[in-house]
C-alpha cells in the first residue's frame, strides 16, 4: 500500500519506476490469484512473526485483504492499464453478489470474509470506478471529467447529480460529453463544466478557472476542437433564433490582438483586456458554426 500511496499521490513520478512497480504487483497478484490487493505481498522472514499464524503471510492487518485500498489501486492502474483496474472492480462486484461485502476484511489464503465490525469503506472499489475509470471528479466550482475507458465500457452514459442539478455524461473513446438542460459540451480531452441558469462555463483540462463562458436562453451544443496556445476553436450548434449568444473567452494573453472567425471567415479583431478576456456575440443557428479565436503575432 505504501507503493500505491507513492504512485497515486504523485510522490513517485518516474514513469519507468511506476511501470516496474505496478507490473511486479500484477505478477504477484496473478501468482496468488487474489481478488483484490493485499496489505503487503511478501511473507515475514523466519523468526520475525510473533506466532506461527503469521506464516506463510502476515496475519490480519499486515497481510489480509482490505477493500479500503481499492480506490487507490485503481487510481494507480487507470491511466495506462484501465483494464487491470476494471478487473479488480469487477472482482469486488462479484464478491458483493456472493456475500454483500458484509465483512471487515478478507483472509489471505482462503479469501473469505472475516470480522464482524463492518467497514463502510468496502465501497471504495465503486468509488474507484467512478473517479478513475469513468473519470467523474466533482470539484468545488465545476464538474471535472477525465475518463480512462476500456472497450467493455465504451459508450457508457451516466446521470450524475451535483449541486441540485442533474448532469448527463456520455463516455466514448475519442469524445466525452456533458449535458445539462439546454447545454452540451464535448471534447476528446479531459475538461470540466459549471452551469448556472442560462450560463455555462467550460474549463479546459484541469484548470480551476473557466476558459469559455456562454450565455443563452436557447439550446446550444459546443464541440471543442482545439484549445490552448494561440488557437481556440470549437463547433457550435443550436436553434434558429433572433437572439445572439453571448461569449466570453478567458485566460488569454493580456492586451494581445485576437481574430474572431466563423466558418473560416474573419469577422472581427479584438484586443484582450488587461485580465486576458475578450467578449463577443454571435448568432445561433441550427446549422453547425465553426468558431475560431486566433492570436495574431
In helices, the fraction of residues equals 10-25%
* Unreliable parts: none
What characteristic shape results from the CA principal axes?
A: elongated
Q: How many beta-strand elements?
A: 18
Count of domains: 2
- Beta-strand portion reads 25-35%
Total count of helical runs of at least 4 residues: 5
Radius of gyration: 25 Å
How would you describe the oligomerization state of the chains in this entry? Answer: single chain
| Average pLDDT figure | 92
Sheet with the most strands: spatial strand order: 5-6-7-8-12-13-18-15-16
Give helix and strand order, one letter per element, not per position: HHHHEEHEEEEEEEEEEEEEEEE
Structural class: alpha+beta
Q: How does the major sheet shape up? A: 9 strands, mixed
User: What's the end-to-end separation, in Å?
Assistant: 51 Å
Describe the structure.
The chain is an alpha+beta fold and 297 residues long. It folds into 2 domains: 2-129, no CATH class; 135-295, no CATH class. The protein has 5 helices and 18 strands. The protein has helices at residues 2-8, 15-32, 70-78, 82-99, 124-133, and strands at 105-106, 113-114, 136-139, 142-145, 156-162, 165-172, 175-180, 183-187, 191-196, 199-204, 212-215, 220-228, 231-238, 244-249, 257-262, 265-271, 278-283, 289-295. The strands form 3 sheets. A 9-stranded mixed β-sheet has the order 5-6-7-8-12-13-18-15-16, with no helix packed on it. Strand 10 (199-204) and strand 11 (212-215) form a beta hairpin. The mean pLDDT is 92.
